[in-house]
Amino acid sequence: MNKLQLTPNTTLYPVPVVLVTCGAGDQVNIFTLNRIASCNAEPPMLSISVRPSRASHDLIDQTGEFVVNIPWPNLELVADFVGTTTCREVDKWQETGLTTQPAVVVAAPMLDACPVNLECQVRHRLRLPSHSLFVAEVVALHALPDVLNGRQEVDFEQAGAGLAYRAGVVRERPVDNFQPDALRQQIHRWRDSQ
Ligand SMILES: Cc1cc2nc3c(=O)[nH]c(=O)nc-3n(C[C@H](O)[C@H](O)[C@H](O)COP(=O)(O)O)c2cc1C
Questions:
Q1: Contact call for residues 144 and 115 (beta carbons, < 8 A)
Q2: pLDDT of residue 162
Q3: How many percent of the chain have pLDDT more than 90?
Q4: Are strands 132-143 and 36-40 parallel, antiparallel or unpaired?
Q5: What's the gap in Å between 130 CA and the centre of ligand 1?
Q6: Whose CA is nearest to atom 5 of ligand 1?
Q7: What's the CATH number where 158 sits?
Q8: Fewest Cβ atoms closer than 10 Å to its Cβ: which of 24, 41, 66, 86?
Q9: How confident is the model over 37-54, as a mean pLDDT?
Q10: 185 backbone dihedrals φ, ψ, rounded to 5°
Q11: Domain count, the chain
């Protein structure tokens, strides 16, 4: 069958979806991110790409730190909410009821609802046309015993249905007929059911 030539996109699969916490003290934030990649082994490093327009961009840029929280699949609603609201207008903590605990090395907090948390410190920054690339070292790793294999490694298969909330398409907002008010009501129902 003939292939169609499409508008270029990064088009990798699977696309991981993570919740990033950043900031320090009483200025901590959470947002959703899928432009993330493992990029070095010794020491372990990963890269995230963040648009300068995000409030989180400046928090990461100023502190040089963040936490990558890997969500269970059932946190998709939370990922949509914190990925479509900005802390400049919405108190995401109050709206979601999400709780945190202090990280061990970095100032940004770790999300309780996620089974895996990676504490990261930025080592390199690169300004790309639309995003800033932050290359960071993973300086501490926390995981629930449920997701460890016999060698004490995080093994996504241990969690049954698979750990990460994965998307098939790189996107930065929920699809087409997006209704912010409906999402807000859904997240309140989710919060009140926890
Ligand atoms: C599934 C999904 C993936 C996203 N991936 C990214 C990303 O890789 N980089 C980015 O800058 N924003 C990404 N976003 C958008 C931010 O999460 C969103 O703009 C958020 O409102 C920023 O919040 P803040 O202004 O409080 O920092 C994504 C959003 C969603 C829903």
A1: yes
A2: 58
A3: 77
A4: unpaired
A5: 13
A6: 33
A7: 2.30.110.10
A8: 41
A9: 98
A10: -65, -40
A11: 1
Residue 18 CA to ligand 1 centre (angstroms): 10
**Which residues, judged by CB distance below 6 Å to any ligand atom, belong to the binding site of ligand 1?**
17, 29, 31-35, 49-51, 54-56, 79-80, 83-87, 167, 171-173
Band of pLDDT at residue 164, cut at 50, 70 and 90: low
Q: Where would I find the H helices in 11-72?
A: 55-63
In-domain check, residue 37 = yes
* Residues 139-149 pLDDT 10s: 999 999 988 98
Q: How far is CA 36 from the centre of its chain?
A: 8
Residue 93 lies in a domain: yes
172 CA → ligand 1 middle, Å = 6
> What pLDDT, on a 0 to 100 scale, did the predictor assign at position 14?
82
Q: Which of 9, 189, 151, 183 is CA-nearest to residue 82? A: 183
pLDDT the model gives residue 167: 72
Return the pLDDT at 37.
95
Asked whether residue 8 is assigned to any structural domain, the reply reads no
